[in-house]
């Protein structure tokens, strides 16, 4: 926009130690006024308020599936940290608890308390590790850490599924060796995947203090899977 201002007035300019100087003339003032406008992105017009429920569910399912892929192929990526959610960890926790339900126990119950035990161990352990990470100076948020720890239970959930299939064929020495190898491999996978996402968010001199609780967390879950025997 162009603005033209014509000043038709006498102005008196006073300077210290000098005589008054009066200017009596038309002084045209011209210039350009520009308003900086940032680049317009199509995302600015994107809104999910009028989106069909089906599209919303499919978008969330695709986001969860992408996070599963990142866990199965662990690499340094900010996807789990930037777009965190707790749907995937909840599904994995419930699935693992259901598969561990009905194992042999000292009591003669139907295995109901075992579901609660698994559920509490996973979520309480994840919360403790997250608090430990924050107290050691971690730079990620509380729910970002829970998201990573929960999604990295995926390899152990796969190990539990394989172990249950192996137990259908028998529970001898060969079966135990197969289950041991599968659980060890998935335990290492879960630990490496979680540290790949969380290690860079910790101070360099405190990474070992963060990795050790993660190691114990997945070790306890792995031990529960390995010692599972159906009734």
UniProtKB/TrEMBL annotation:
Entry's Gene Ontology cellular component terms: Golgi membrane; trans-Golgi network
UniProt source species: Urocolius indicus
Name under which the protein is recorded: Protein YIPF
Transmembrane segments: 84-103, 115-136, 148-170, 176-198, 210-229
Localization per Swiss-Prot or TrEMBL: Golgi apparatus membrane; Membrane
One Pfam family from the record: Yip1
Biological process (GO), any one: endoplasmic reticulum to Golgi vesicle-mediated transport
Keywords: Membrane, Transmembrane, Transmembrane helix
Taxonomy, superkingdom: Eukaryota
Membrane topology recorded in Swiss-Prot or TrEMBL: Multi-pass membrane protein
Similarity section: Belongs to the YIP1 family.
InterPro entries xrefs: Yip1/4-like, Yip1_dom
